[in-house]
Amino acid sequence: MTETISYTPEEVAHILKITRYTVYEMIKRGDLAAYRIGRKMRIEAPDLENYIHKSKGCSPAAENQLAKTPRPYAPSQGRLILCGQDILLDILARQMEEGMPAASCLRNYIGSIDGLLALYHGTANAVTTHLWDSDTDSYNLPYIRRLLPGHHTVVINLAYRMEGFYVAKGNPKQILTWGDLTAPSLRFVNREPGSGARVLLDEQLRLLDIHHSAIEGYTHEELSHLAVASCVGRKEADVGLGIEKAALQVSGIDFIPLKREQYDLVIRQEDMGTAMMKNLLAILRSQSFHDEISGLGGYDLARTGEIIAEL
Q: Are strands 188-191 and 221-222 parallel, antiparallel or unpaired?
């Protein structure tokens, strides 16, 4: 079997004549597909070529041809693209590869909406989402129906997490509610559009009839919960929004709980019978997976591995 060439982020940076930090940002945004081997990040040559091709632009004829091609990442081919940013997905990917050494589970570190769109376009086959809908006071299902029309999916619970504010130790500015974000001189740090935290914030502001321009720092964006928490810890912002787990990893901050969120995995129904998806589901329901995640703190695993809905 021909071995696919892969590069480190440093090698990609050299090829593109950019910094390696820019490469990592491209990976976080989902612009460049990458995967982990242990603690090392790798980018396959075809994915790098695809990124360069997209950057140059496609002719209409080429776009028509691409539209006719089958889904490039099918779990039946022994390769699974798993979208999402939570550390529990890294653990899931590792345990999957340990159980199926011939298979590869590639990670794409993108937000909830971008993940669902990747599933719709066939460039991923297992994506995570934590999107709150204010009209129904429910998570994920309304968005899955809207963003995946004509596609039958299975929704599996990964965990429940607490979303809330990161504030300085002792909460000196007494930030407790969504409305407090409009306080004068209060500096907020936001998540990028399409992330679950950004959607939660925007939905809450809509309910309170608060325009985002009233929040200083609304346009200050970071690409992960940990980056937001770190920004508050470095006193570059007074408050940010994210999950409790990140607050446990950053010194000098407190966590103000606001919303218990449902963190789910979405898969196409047609893929559920494949060996890789059966392995994935078995791991989610295994004691070893539960024990490893429980040791991290910040997760409620009461329904992990349970099928929430079939749409």
A: parallel
Structure token digits, residue 238 = 């007074």
Taking only the tens place, the pLDDT of each residue in 230-253 is 999 999 999 999 999 899 889 999
Nearest one of 109, 107, 142 to 37, comparing CA atoms: 107
For the entire predicted model, the pTM comes to: 0.75
Higher pLDDT, 65 or 36: 36
Tens-digit pLDDT profile for residues 115-153:
999 899 888 889 999 999 999 999 999 999 999 998 999
- Angle at alpha carbon of residue 163, lines to 27 and 172, rounded to 5°: 110
Residue 51, classified by CB atoms within 10 Å of its CB into exposed (0-12), middle (13-18) or buried (19+), is middle
Which helix (H) or strand (E) is 261 found in, with range? strand 253-268
Burial 5-28 (b: 16+ CB within 10 A, else e): ebbebeebbeebeeeeeebbebbb
Query: Cα-flanking dihedrals φ and ψ of residue 80, to 5°?
Result: -125, 130
Q: Single out the residue of 260, 298, 234 nearest to residue 86, CA to CA.
A: 298
Picking from 204, 172, 171, the residue whose alpha carbon sits closest to that of residue 190 is 204
